[in-house]
Amino acid sequence: MENISDIKIEPLQKSQYVKPYRMHFKQNGVRRIWDLITLHESVFIVIFNTERRKLVCVKQFRPAVYCNELAKEDGGLEERNYEDASISGAEGCTLEWCAGIVDKNIDVKEIAQAEVLEECGYKVPISKFEKIISCRAGVGVSGEMQTGFYVEVDDSMKVSEGGGLASEGEMIDVIELSIEDAKKMLERPFVNSPSGHLKMHLAL
């Protein structure tokens, strides 16, 4: 997962996931411009294994996180090959809740159920999923809707190792955290996790 090589940065031509725009508008009579992107809506799932009293999280390489570190090291991201990149692939690996984009015309709870199976290997009845909240993510640049769920699992529901869909290039490690370990994360000055991951730890 952390063996990253043959890096090339180039302009975005066309993407099925990200669409950049520039919005021109007036706010209280003042003309403004804002650059933004549109993204799919998404779901995240807080998974708790009641038998082992562990939170079930995922670890994966996030290219955007890696490029952010690459830009800091290089004084800005350039359109070129980075064969000499000195940043370890570990810098781009984040600890997160199980999550996924809403890219099918089905209920978001079904999306959440499928992600738990694909990423973490638990086959969970849909009735077990409890909605936490729907909120906005990336409000400065994308503003997409994100819906969170909570689900309790046990070892009898474990039907595979998870790891994501290899057909989509996913490489995901399933990580279990005790509640105590999760709280200790909050004592660190920096963690390589999305802010939503930390906020849910606070609730726990």
From TrEMBL:
Gene3D superfamilies: Nucleoside Triphosphate Pyrophosphohydrolase. CDD domains: NUDIX_UGPPase_Nudt14. GO terms for molecular function: metal ion binding; UDP-sugar diphosphatase activity. It catalyses: UDP-sugar + H2O = UMP + alpha-D-aldose 1-phosphate. Residues 38-204 form the Nudix hydrolase domain. GO terms for cellular component: cytoplasm. Keywords: Cytoplasm, Hydrolase, Magnesium. PROSITE patterns: NUDIX (PS51462). It is found in: Cytoplasm. InterPro entries: NDP_pyrophosphatase (IPR004385), NUDIX_hydrolase-like_dom_sf (IPR015797), NUDIX_hydrolase_dom (IPR000086). Its cofactor is Mg(2+). SUPFAM superfamilies: Nudix (SSF55811). Its main location: cytoplasm. The keyword Hydrolase applies. The keyword Translocase does not apply. Homodimer. Hydrolyzes UDP-glucose to glucose 1-phosphate and UMP and ADP-ribose to ribose 5-phosphate and AMP. The physiological substrate is probably UDP-glucose. Poor activity on other substrates such as ADP-glucose, CDP-glucose, GDP-glucose and GDP-mannose. NCBIfam families: nudix-type nucleoside diphosphatase, YffH/AdpP family (TIGR00052). This is Uridine diphosphate glucose pyrophosphatase NUDT14. It comes from Armadillidium nasatum.
